[in-house]
From TrEMBL:
It comes from the Bacteria. InterPro entries: Thi_PPkinase, Thiamin_PyroPKinase_B1-bd, TPK, TPK_B1-bd_sf, TPK_catalytic, TPK_catalytic_sf. CDD domains: TPK. Keywords: ATP-binding, Kinase, Nucleotide-binding, Transferase. This is Thiamine diphosphokinase. Its EC number is 2.7.6.2.
Amino acid sequence: MSSHHIVRDDQEPALIIANGAACNPELLGQLLEWSPLVIVLDSAIERVIELGIKVDVLLGDFDRGFDPEIYKTTQYPIEIVHTPDQDKTDLEKAFDYLIDRKIPAVNVVWATGKRADHTITNITNIARYRDLLKIVILDDHSKVFLLPRKFEKWYTAKTPISLIPIGIVDGIYSTNLLYPLINDTLTIGYRTGSSNSVLQDGLVTITHTNGDLLLMECMD
């Protein structure tokens, strides 16, 4: 894994590396290709360093005897951000850090897998940042993001797509999906739009009136 060398003044989405299951090195390399600002949560720092990745920001509550000072030399220059607030996860605090820096978008890896509670929390918490930060969570199987009220994107036929509500989402309409939604309501735990797919090459449109709706582009 090659390290990045030049941060391009926040032109590209930042990259947060959390501490879930590692993704394919090829995916990580693609995200690092344009030298984004790289933020690593404290519990993942040793795994990241082993991959030869240059870290720009080390962020976390630094509990359990964690000493961030040792990385000031090996990762110089590096910004150390201590975030002791226990009412938020380290990933949420990383989002807050980006908002404070007025960085508009971020890709997140290593945020899924391992503990199920962490995976569910990491994915669903992006809803609260709807108007503050464009967040995309990626792993080897899915690309997950929160939909705006109207979403349009060109896809190839048979691309697997899942629509997952956070709570209740209503007034959902879609075009060019195998299983169309027409003024539908989806409710987590009762009815979701999992395992749909694109009907034919072309534009997919999804709109919804109320609620928070996640789209998952699935790779298998």
